[in-house]
Structures are given as C-alpha cells and as structure tokens.
Amino acid sequence: MALGDEKISPSNFEGVPEGRGSFYKTSLMKTFGLIGKSLSHSFSQQYFTEKFLQEKINDAEYRLFPLTSIEEVRELLKLPTLLGFNVTIPYKSEIIPFLDELDLVAQEIGAVNCVVKRGNRWVGYNTDVIGFEETLKQIGRKEKGEKEKRERRRKKISPSNFEGMPEGRGSLYKNQNTALILGSGGASKAVSHVLQQKNIPFQIVSRKKTNETITYNEITDKLIHHTQFIINTTPLGMFPNVNEMPPIPYTALHGEHILIDLIYNPEETLFLKEGKKRGASVMNGLAMLRAQADAGWGLFTR
Question: pTM for the complete prediction?
Fold first, then answer.
C-alpha cells in the first residue's frame, strides 16, 4: 500500500508498518513527495527516485501523497522527515494558506507547485514558470526549422512580440488576441505570467465568466482564426480520460496555429490530434514537466 492511499492522520506516521519501502527503515532518511488528488499519472516519483540514484543520495526517497482534501496537508506537514514536496492539480492555489512564505514569483502568480522546508518555515515556489518558458523555447527551435524550409517561398515577417519565435508565421502576430489560455487554475496562472512577461496578449477561457475570463461558449471561429497560440492548462484529455478535450471550434484551426497542451500523459492528447490533423504545430507538456522538475530538484537540494 502506497503512503497516502488512506486518509492522512498523525497515526499514519507513527509506527509505520512493514511493507511501505526502505524509506522507513532509518530515521535518517529524508522525505520528498508529491501532493494532488489523482497521482496515478505522475512522472515525479520516477524522476526524483532516479535523480537520487544518479547523485548517489541514499538517505532520501520520493513518495506520492494523494489527498482527498487540501485540509489533509496539515497532518502531512507534521511529518518530521518531510523536507519538500511538489504540488499538482487541484491544489496549486489552495496550498498557499498552509505555507509560511512565498517567493516573489509565486506571490505574483498566486500559485505554488514546489514547497521546501527552510529551517522551520514552509516556503512556496513556482517552477511552472521555468517549465513553460522552456516550452516556448522548444517551440521556437521547432518552428525555426520549419521556417527554414518555407522561407524560400515566403516573405520574411519578424514577430516583435515573441522573443525566440521564428520569422514567417504570418500576420497573426499582429492581432490583438495572440493567445488563448484554456483553464484558469494554478497552471494557467503560471502560463499567464510568462506570456505577460513576453508582452504576448492573451485571453483566459474558463467554465465561469469573470471580469478576466470568457467562457467556452464565447469562443467563435473568428476568435480561433485570429489567435496564434491555444494553450490547454486543464486536465481534459489526461489519462485515463483520454477521450476528453476542451470544447473549442476545432474546425476553425489551420496551419498557422500553435497548440500547446500541458498534459504529458498521453503524449498526444485528443486536443493535439485535432490540431495536428488540421496542420497546426503542436507541443505536449513533457518539456515543461522536465524543466520544472529540474528546477524543483535545485530547490530541494539547495
């Protein structure tokens, strides 16, 4: 039985029974982990376990802590050996009241995906920002390669509002709505932060209309046609619900679009497949995942 399969309470960490791994065989071990609601899709445990082995760190282990409610984190934070953990859907914003401090970026964004114990204080960070910046860099490199094949036939157009993106992607860069962000949760906040830093105009789409968001019903063919980036930050299409996708007018997609899905399992979601078959460039969440995990490793071992 994996730690976290049952409701977390103080008794879960006292006299832990045999069969839960070598971590509990010594009090010198250090605990790191991941909190979220559904963690069966997680890449983090494998990533950090391999990191510990590569670095010959024998006194640490990475565990999964599925929580049915964020309130359960109160007891988790009492675990004496816990030194840090990652945060995933749906707790990236909900974790904040339980922390003692936020770094500047996490404070600006209002979302946390990495928590580290500094002395007796729990400090929240956001490494999703680093991850999404890496995604944009990889898209830039990918598009540059495609651009080199096209530029013999097309007039050069230099997008001034996106550093690192290639020339030649067309007039969409000049449109007011350059990006649509699907979803308004913690990951969406990190994406919004990066786009804002790069002066890329964006519109957030959510199930509920607010002063800052529109609803999916308000996404028209015209809006899709005049939007360069469409970024899915929702869990729609994530394993095991692979037949789901955000409700947008996919028939309006064309070859000038760039679709980004922060989901990495499956590697190609239905959202990306719909874009790909209409000629759009697509990118899944693996680049973001690895980059934010590398940044989290740096925080854990600092």
Answer: 0.80
